[in-house]
Amino acid sequence: MTKHTLARLLAIAAVLLCAPGRAPADEAKQVKEFRVCGDPNNMPFSNEKLEGIENKIADVIAKDLGETVTYFWWPHQRGVVKRVLNAKHCDIMLGIPKGYDLVTWTRPYYRTGYVMVYRKDRKLKLRSLDDPALKTLKIGVQVNTPPHDALGRRGIADNVVGYQLMFDSNFHAEDYPGKVVEDVLAGSVDVAMVWGPIAGYFAKKKGAPLEIVPIDDPADTGLPFAFDIAMGVRKGDKQRKEQLESALARRHDEIEHVLADFGVPLLPAAEEKAHDKGAR
Amino acid sequence: MRTKSLVIGVIAAVLPVAAYGQGATGDDPASLQGDDAQWVLPAKNYSATRFSTLSKITPDNVKNLKVAWSMSTGTNQGHEGAPLVVGSTMYIVSSYPNIVYAVDLAKDFAIKWKYLPKQDAKAVPVACCDLVHRGLNYTHGKILFSTLDAQVIALDANTGKELWKAKNGDPSKGETITAAGLIVKDKYIVGISGGEFGVRGHVTAYDINSGKQVWRAYSTGPDEELKLAPDFNAANPHYGQKGQGTGTWQGDAWKRGGGTTWGWYSYDPQLNLFYYSTGNPGTWNPDQRLGDNKWSMTIWARDPDTGMAKWGYQMTPHDAWDYDGVNESILADLTIGGKKVPALVHFDRNGFAYTMDRSNGTLLVAEPFVAVNWAKSIDKKTGRPVEDSSKRTKQGQVTKDICPNAMGGKDQQPAAFSPNTGLFYVPTNNMCMDYEATEVKYTAGAPYVGANVLMKPGPGDGSLGELIAWDATTGKKVWGVKEKQPAWGGVLATKTDVVFYGTMDGWFKAVHAKTGKLLWKHKVGSGIIGSPMTFQGPDKKQYVAVYSGVGGWFGVAVSQDLPPNDPYAALGEVGIAYKNGLDKATTKGGAVYVFSLE
Fold first, then answer.
1. Higher confidence at residue A235 or residue A279?
2. In the annotation, is B76 catalytic?
3. Which terminus of chain B is less hemmed in, N or C, by CB atoms within 10 Å?
């Protein structure tokens, strides 16, 4: 066990032991600190070495607000809002899909969607989910995501390789969502249907020879394939939300630059009402 | 037991209670289960009847029951299951982190020892529906149990010293354990939780002395991993035989096929078969796993020595409602149509009560015990439900008013059987659900979409629970006592026709076994989701004990302080729990309460 891991275990233990009450001093500190609920090991989004998209964007926004970025590391998996954000170990989650109503979300700062990705040298020319080739190609997809559902509706299942949705970024980082793209590169699956920024990261940052094709929302599933991405704060934390929104507006160009640097396949901003179920 | 446990009870009661710890032969559940002074198995006996012949507490004097003593368990999450009493020691286990206490009943309830398992904290966020635990097992001077992080641990029952540990699963893959498991002969058999993470369910046997894994039988996959006996389902080939553990799935979906095994187990020593059932199939979207998805949602009969399956009956093929089929199977010898039958009775989440011949799995009676509309009936010829297609859910579509809801006509809370009255006493839920269009959920690096489930009261006066008395020979309800909250606690029946159960709003109640008439009630510190048990103390008094400590799926809003502002949270639980006033009825906190006369 590395020192790092040990420290993290202790941090987790500390959360479990003292989750309900933190000293009021923390509230005062929020003024100066840009306290991010960060995933420790989930590239291309975030990691402890601060290499991810969200790490870079956090730096941009914190700088604008004259604050120092601090992280509370916890995998962005089930329970993160309740055990970390709502327990006030941190105040801000980055990369939240608008509509994720466990948090109050800001105005979105980019929009992206699910894509098909395959090796360029395969010359597959896939353009839509209805391409007949998808009936025979080996398709890698995370289970329970919209493309997984859409494949099921098309009766495409026997040739689908399912990838876990949940993974433990503390201890099993190798199971991260990018694994399916690695498998495309290695040739063990022919095509992956994956969240856009993951494919973009491999193509741009790692220079992998990949063809990336955005998937249009198929009319039949009623499931969106593209999402507006925002920051999230604790429910009702209006002040923080407004601060973040004005900083996001001021830093629009720098954020675009970060997204371009990571090869995030951007989509035009959606109409306000689209997919916005709003807070209940 | 096929022979009446009553008979063995009389024989065993002659043995002095103090035989425990003196190396007496028969220091195992099979020998001790008939001694009603003790409670050595999670469900009292291998038949899982939760029936005791202790007779000092009667319908006439039960009104004089008082708290004899109580003890905090030190944890706040839900407390399911029941304590054990072996000799003059009570063994208690708390919710996560699963602290085990040995309490000396002969010496002012002093704590003889306490054991805190070292657990992997990453089990906590992946555990479904509260951090509950369903109990301990005893054999040959050992306490065996499983922890939330999927370890199996053996302790010296006298000292609390750890004897061995084994790893039955990996929480970083979503695998956890909340079940009690069961000791049969020299093996401890336990399952796994985590169906919503695509865990592939199994039951696994460990050697009680060494902790070595002896066999493992999966719920899905190739025949050799399912461990199907050569004559599997010979009596009912239409239930399915070889090849279906992969053949009723698409592609490799069986690898994430669910069919977890977190419920209660029972055992018939004469037939040498143990019984348990499997949960819902993995991958939420039924479209992605067309087919029956065997052997999820299945009642199994297996040989405990080898793990080989003699029969398996799937209750809900191709589940689309999360009717997680893990509820207990109670073994009772019943007379049906003038014929004595070694029966197995199972009250399923899907709302049907199944009476089967436990020797071969033949279906005898299958009737709804709560409001059911997803299926009209069970076709006894084929064994399959006759579905109402308009109630079958589909991802991305709204399906309204499905009964029962995903929590089921009955959840894990175990029923009791009284050979005195011939009736089953069943804690039930009265809830329906809307399965709604999609909602954005989120996981690291990928927004994903899950179904929304909105839960609501079932038909009637708005009460969400009912304790019912059930005649399993005809499939008919005999009486019912309505409860405002879902009846989420187990039941105890005694020879004197007193039936005990607890409610989520914190009332511990005694009713008459023949009429359901309320005889006594007492409000305890926190809502009850545990199962009452009874024993005879060193002072020869009869005691009744129950865990207090609200939680479980329905109670999670209170035990984990979930805010009321998201009615869909905790898979739809939060909305209905607040609407039904659970937060105004009780607070969290684990304790054991022990009652006696005087």
1. A235
2. no
3. C
